[in-house]
Amino acid sequence: MATDYSYRSRCLLMDYCGIKENTLNKKVKGIAYHFETREDLRRFVTEEVLNSAETIEFLEISRERLSQLIKDGKLLPIKKMLKDSLFLKTDLEEKKKELETTRKKYQPFDTLDK
């Protein structure tokens, strides 16, 4: 997957995920994706886009904590639906590092067992 940004690639991603154009530009700021085929796009969505349940497992947080992070603007979904949201894995990896640092600072005894 190259980092060349084409209009067709962006349209495929937005159409596949149901993302509005202004949302994609705002959330994926500075990152360009290029998909040669629909299969490339499917692979990207499968590997790099997580729903709420997958995000909770990935970040090791509760559903309530996820809702609070979204409400506080500390975690921005690429698409928010009535009962679910979609997130980019790259955004979640950054947040996971931040949460692990915070856990070590405020829950030092919990990290001794790991």
Quick gist of this model?
With 114 residues, the protein is mainly alpha-helical. It has helices at 7-17, 21-27, 38-48, 52-59, 63-71, 89-106, and strands at 49-51, 79-80, 85-88.
How does this model look, in words?
With 114 residues, the protein is mainly alpha-helical. The protein contains 6 helices and 3 strands. A 3-stranded antiparallel β-sheet has the order 1-3-2. Strand 2 and strand 3 (85-88) form a beta hairpin. The chain is elongated, with a radius of gyration of 16 Å. It starts with 6 loop residues before the first helix and ends in an 8-residue tail after the last helix. The model is unreliable at 1-5 and 22-28 (pLDDT under 50).
Protein traits:
mainly alpha; elongated; 114 residues; three-stranded antiparallel β-sheet
